[in-house]
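TEACHING EXERCISE
Course module: macromolecular assemblies
Task: Read the component lines below, then compare them to the predicted structure of the full complex.
Student: A.B.
Group: 4
Components provided:
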Amino acid sequence: MPELRRDPVSGRWVILSIERGKRPSDFASPSQKRKVGGFCPFCPGNEYTAPPEIVSFRPAGTPPNSPGWTLRVVPNKFPALHIHGELSKRGEGIFDMMSGIGAHEVIIEAPDHRLSLSTMSVKAVEDVLWAYYFRLTDLKKDPRFKYALVFKNEGEIAGASLEHTHSQLIALPIIPKTVQEEMKSSREYYSSKERCLFCDIIRQEIEAGKRLIYENDKYVAISPFAPRDPFETWILPKRHESKFHAPDKSFSSLAEILQTMLKRLDAVLDTPPYNFILHTSPFREEINDYYHWHIEILPRLVKRAGFEWGSGSFINPTSPEDATKFLREAIA
Amino acid sequence: MPELRRDPVSGRWVILSIERGKRPSDFASPSQKRKVGGFCPFCPGNEYTAPPEIVSFRPAGTPPNSPGWTLRVVPNKFPALHIHGELSKRGEGIFDMMSGIGAHEVIIEAPDHRLSLSTMSVKAVEDVLWAYYFRLTDLKKDPRFKYALVFKNEGEIAGASLEHTHSQLIALPIIPKTVQEEMKSSREYYSSKERCLFCDIIRQEIEAGKRLIYENDKYVAISPFAPRDPFETWILPKRHESKFHAPDKSFSSLAEILQTMLKRLDAVLDTPPYNFILHTSPFREEINDYYHWHIEILPRLVKRAGFEWGSGSFINPTSPEDATKFLREAIA
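Instructor-supplied answer key:
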């Protein structure tokens, strides 16, 4: 019998169509292993093809926009929003609009075209997280922005137009709908219970165990109770933290659990395409008792179509309990 | 300069990234014209491969599940939800779940494998709408169901696993999140204005004209103010109607406008993949003053990735005003 499950954070219902009961090998997705060859605008030596870098990690003395870097942040060459200009808001009858002000940046995570977040050194993953942190901290100062969404598209199916390992950041003059929904339900939960919804989820999952994939000293990786996608994985800090920041000035534990999970997904699903998303509190309410920042990893194994777009629900052929077993036993 | 626009119905913000200003020919999507050849379970003669038909339009005297039909509705062979069983609801700590009870049906729209909704006769399209109507009216009697979502996936990219023209229906024991959101905002709008939000949108669009694509005696086709996808098109009844039903016992005007729009999308975008969704009021509040049923057509021309999943916003490279011009001038 299939099952309907409600995600308490977003409020969406998910259909676990478990008889379709797919095992990892049933998902025939093209492996995202790197194929080297051809011109890549993100490779060292081709820095001139991108707009000038915003931040880079490079040896002292090397000039900006030249080789030698280990990580670069550059403006997106084809930005969805523009950084220059005034934020003007207006109406058109019953409709609301504003000028398309924002920042759209690309984090080039490593110079070597053959690497991915799961194959680079854990220290390099830590640097990627530092880059997110530096950019979020900087963009927060711009009074036009209310939120910055960090996300990664890995593989063409997941929306990556370039193979070279990178993530993106879009700063927005609005709080995204998805984040607003999560804020709302966690605020309501807190106001009735005086406890953080995510803290309660973490506590329950650690006790129950059946959706607990992995934990280290500071973080936990779980299969969410109502996953949209097969093998969807969330990474959360065990202690209540409302904003993504560097606890004890270190991202080492986060880099460790993030890479461990990506390595395991690679092992179980043969280097699948995936998206990940960093959800943190909006800039103007970064410190609060009810929201709990986290990373959502969504392997792109099944198509979303009319039902998903029309309902906001999802049909998932793999239960999170099964996914947990595979990911727990995976040897990366 | 890009623009941020808010859809007043769903509340989602859309980024119109208009410098990317894509013309129809920039969307290289594989044409969905039919390729005949190979075994098709929906073709006449192969009725035995599907579960027994629920409804069919066929000459008097021909036995069910045999050739001769012009339209068939069958249960989905791999249903996401099960029709038999009791609807049981329970909690698991902070989580909510229920048994996966529902109906998952396939509407085989025509016997001829070469046809699509845009190339069959307009009378055949009318029959498809009648089939939706009969199934909705029937499923409504089942007290376990709160909603039935009718949708169509046209083309592999849009999620169709079989080429033979068909749509689907999923009856659910819940009201889908997307419909709930639309109900909520139209209820709020009505309670402050005593007017239907959709009626106001239609009035404004007819007056302004710049997003009005086509109208006939009873229906209007518009590009929504904040479209998720390039060439997204909505079809709405001009008069307030809260539920999809047969006005004056006829679907002829709806068939005419639906096919006209699909023909124009085919002409402008070279037979693109698309999804369409029928949004009508939930079974238990079918007659009301605030919700207005409609069809949303979403051509699948751009990929949705980390940003869309993480934000609930969309980046659309074509303004609805441009899309309107192309669709208005299209000769199908």
